[in-house]
Amino acid sequence: MPENELVVFTLNCWGLKFVSKNRKDRIIAIADELSHTEEYDVITLQELWVYSDYEYVRESVAKYLPYAKFFYSGALGAGLAIFSRFPIIATEILPYSLNGLPIDIAGGDWFVGKAAASVIIAHPVLGQVQVFNTHLFAKGGEDGPEHNRAHRLVNAWEFAKLAKRAAELGRYVIAAGDFNSIPTTLPMTIIREHANLIDSWLVTHPFSNTPSDTTPSPQEAIDEFGVTADSPVNTYSAGKGLDPTARKFCGKRLDYIFYRQPWSQNSSNLAVLHCKDSRVVFTHEVPGTTFSFSDHFGLKSVLQIRMPGLTPAADFSSESQAAWSAQPPETSELSDACLSTMIQALTTCYRFSKSRAQKELALFVLCVMLLITTAVVSTWFPHPWLNPIFILFSVFLAWLGTTMLYEGFLYGNWERNALMNIVEELEIYRQRPQDTTR
């Protein structure tokens, strides 16, 4: 690969054991496709939860991507993996403060420990590049309710802080993954503006976020608007009950590749990253089958490395040449309206959490009273054959009471403390001197 290019690929593999359809066949197909391409310098995968699946992918691409890292988090693992052509010199994973509720077993976000994973690679031209891979909290759509979407806002804020800090330490930043948010939503605004990240898709498709009254065709939605999920073209989305946004736009753009320069007081001497090409890939069906590679499509971005004093290549489009000639801004900040909306969502979630905890603790007390009553009644009941029923009922009450105690007291306090910490951070951010933002 040319030393003046960095090719990045990201894909949500939908690799849940026992749950995801055709998982083994799809993982094998994904690995084979990646091994035959050999064009990527960095690959970030999400929902790759089964370690043997990761090993298969790693062995398949090891010939041209010899460096890899599988990340552990939560009870079931983060499902995140990064593969690199260049040496990995450091790794890190930071679980998000809030990831849904322990009682939400169907959602599963709390159990997997959604996190921001990263590696630092040693690039021969750029030096240190910190590559982030993440998968944000799934529930809590664009329309709320406020207490539900607050957890994804927390994820976005914490992710943006990490990316910004990496740039302040003098590293180039590449951030990819499944952000579970369409481009116009508040979580994406936080990530772009607080971390000053550049959306690679928008560099090459500058009008794809422009509202349209017409519904694109499924292929136009992919090619022009970067749709990566809930597409009618995807076999796992076809016929699925979709929300109004997905129906109107033939899917959603949920997967992103961002990048930015390191912060420097003398940025004119630094090489500049610029997205030359960005496209949705893995849109075809697995060869020889009738199903897609995943319930998401992949995203590929080609980042050109511009050395100081050079001009854009002749094969760039006019829009790309214009973007290339402009230095990326060194400063960015969240608007007061954005901060107010975030604080409102977090405080609403705080009040909802407190109310929910009171109900759960009341249910815990009720379970204790019922357990005592069951124990007393079972000793006096004249029919011994009913004792097994009383035992099963007692086990259920003990489980429910313990769960409500944990959820209402321990987790409830954890959630509210995390929410208040971030609200206070946002208030401090709002009151900071304006010239301190980078």
UniProtKB/TrEMBL annotation:
This is Endonuclease/exonuclease/phosphatase domain-containing protein. Its main location: membrane. The lineage of its organism: Eukaryota, Fungi, Dikarya, Basidiomycota, Agaricomycotina. It comes from Collybiopsis confluens. The chain crosses the membrane at residues 361-383, 389-411. GO terms for biological process: sphingolipid metabolic process. Residues 10-267 form the Endonuclease/exonuclease/phosphatase domain. InterPro entries: Endo/exonu/phosph_ase_sf (IPR036691), Endo/exonuclease/phosphatase (IPR005135), Sph/SMPD2-like (IPR038772). It is found in: Membrane. Keywords: Hydrolase, Lipid metabolism, Magnesium, Membrane, Metal-binding, Sphingolipid metabolism, Transmembrane, Transmembrane helix. The keyword Protease does not apply. Pathway: Sphingolipid metabolism; Lipid metabolism; sphingolipid metabolism. One of its GO terms (molecular function) is sphingomyelin phosphodiesterase activity. It is a multi-pass membrane protein. Belongs to the neutral sphingomyelinase family. Pfam families: Exo_endo_phos. One of its GO terms (cellular component) is membrane.
